[in-house]
Structure formats: structure tokens, C-alpha cells
Write a structure and sequence with these properties.
mainly alpha
Length: 265
């Protein structure tokens, strides 16, 4: 790994990470503060008035506990979609943008092999994803303990966040691989955006009524089983492991592909 390049990426992308952390903080703090078991009937009435809309965003039944409320409103959609946008932007900044603007020639001029340079970029992306998930986990746990002491089921909540990191690693691997295989930013952006948006849209469609339920098998987000992870279900852990494995495998494919292909430098 190239430590100098890693530090350079920190300087170039810290603001992007902070912006998304702020956005996640706003939603996380607001949703946590909104928890009120006495409002259950009011929220149910709202969901009944717009069932398809609430179902599409995974909010049709947010339960009665703090864990169910937070996981339903945040982890069903928001905490997947916003980090997904971050991954699209970051993956293109780390590889294809350097190729597109000609800066990759300077990176490859250093006496290190291509795969080590790409490994550095890959590790940087994974570091950002871990920081993001650890941050939102600590944030919500802190707000929960401050506002509703003892209400949050910490163990189950931590398991959900392990699953969240899994789906983000999968998206990261997909977008990073696309960036490694592209000469232009617009191409890698198009592929990355298609994968992330396609996955989210299919997940939303699969939750709107029983007739669309089978659509869930066409999106990787189905492997992020929130309820199963909260309950510690073995099948949920297997699906979570598949996400991690697939994401890391795609990153590896991207590194190998970049190392062997001809670049327009």
C-alpha cells in the first residue's frame, strides 16, 4: 500500500465524507428524537392513508420498540441510499477520474506496481465506509441513550450495522470495479449509478404489494435482512457474508483488471 497516496486521498476527499456524515447525522438524530410509543396509532394512520408510499420506503410497519422504529425509518432506505450516492462519487474520484484527466500517468510514474496503487485506493474506500458506519452507529446509540435510556437493544442494533456495512461494501466493490474498468468518468458514473439506483428501485417495488414480492430476488439489498440480523438469525448472517464476499471479490477483480489493461495515458 502507498501511504503517501492514502494521505493524499484523505486531503482530497475528507470534505466529501464530512458532508455525507452531516446529512446522515441530521436524519439519524431527527428520526431517533421522533420516537414516541404513544404516537404509534398516529403513524399507523398515516401509513394506512398512503400504504404504497410507506411500503416502498420500508416504513409500512415500524413496530413499537426504539430498535424497530430506527431500523424501519433509517435502515430500510435512507441509510442505504445516501451512502450509495457517496460510493458512486468516491469510486469515480479514486480511479476513473485520474485516467480521464490524465493524472494517472503521474501516479504510475512512482516505482510501485499498479496493483499496489489500486489496493491503496481500495483500502481508502473501505476505510471511509467503516468510518461512516461506525459514526452513525455511535451517533444513534448516543442519542438513544440520552433521550431514551435503556430502550435501545444494543446487541441487535450492532448486528444491523454489520449488515449495513455489508451492503455498502457490495456497492463499493461494484462501483470500484466499474471505475477500474473505465477510461472516462461518465462511463463509470453511468454504470455505478445504474447498479445502485436499480437495486434501490427494485427493493422499493418489491415492498409495494404481494404481486411484486418476487422482484426482491433481483436486488442485492434483499441480502441485507434487517429483521433477521436483529434476531441473530443464521440465514441472515449467511446472506450478510455473501455481501461482504461479493464486494471484496469485485474489488479484487477491479484491481486485477486495472493492472493488466492498456490505459490511454
Amino acid at each position: 500500500m502507498n501511504a503517501t497516496l492514502f494521505k493524499k486521498e484523505i486531503k482530497s476527499n475528507w470534505l466529501l465524507l464530512v458532508i455525507f456524515l452531516v446529512v446522515l447525522s441530521v436524519y439519524g438524530s431527527m428520526i431517533t428524537m421522533m420516537f414516541n410509543p404513544e404516537m404509534g396509532d398516529s403513524l399507523k394512520m398515516m401509513a394506512d392513508s398512503m400504504p404504497d408510499l410507506f411500503a416502498a420506503f420500508g416504513m409500512a410497519d415500524v413496530g413499537q420498540t426504539l430498535l424497530e422504529f430506527v431500523s424501519g425509518y433509517l435502515y430500510g432506505m435512507l441509510y442505504v441510499a445516501f451512502p450509495g450516492v457517496f460510493i458512486i462519487i468516491l469510486s469515480n474520484r479514486l480511479v476513473s477520474r485520474y485516467v480521464d484527466n490524465g493524472s494517472m500517468a503521474y501516479l504510475l510514474a512512482v516505482p510501485q506496481k499498479r496493483w499496489k496503487i489500486m489496493l491503496t485506493q481500495c483500502v481508502f474506500m473501505l476505510t471511509c465506509l467503516v468510518v461512516m458506519v461506525v459514526y452513525v452507529t455511535c451517533l444513534i446509540l448516543a442519542f438513544s441513550e440520552a433521550l431514551f435510556p435503556g430502550e435501545m437493544e444494543t446487541g441487535a442494533f450492532l448486528r444491523i450495522n454489520v449488515g449495513l456495512l455489508g451492503i455498502l461494501v457490495f456497492f463499493g466493490g461494484t462501483c470500484f470495479c466499474a471505475s477500474c474498468c473505465s477510461n472516462e468518468t461518465k462511463t463509470s458514473s453511468a454504470v455505478s449509478t445504474t447498479v445502485v439506483v436499480y437495486s434501490i428501485l427494485l427493493q422499493m417495488i418489491s415492498q409495494v404489494g404481494d404481486k411484486f414480492e418476487k422482484v426482491k430476488y433481483a436486488t442485492p439489498i434483499t441480502l441485507f435482512d434487517i429483521d433477521g440480523l436483529a434476531a441473530g438469525d443464521g440465514k441472515a448472517w449467511i446472506m450478510c457474508g455473501i455481501l461482504y464476499l461479493a464486494g471484496i471479490l469485485l474489488m479484487g477483480i477491479g484491481i486485477i483488471r486495472f493492472s493488466k489493461r492498456d490505459l490511454p495515458l
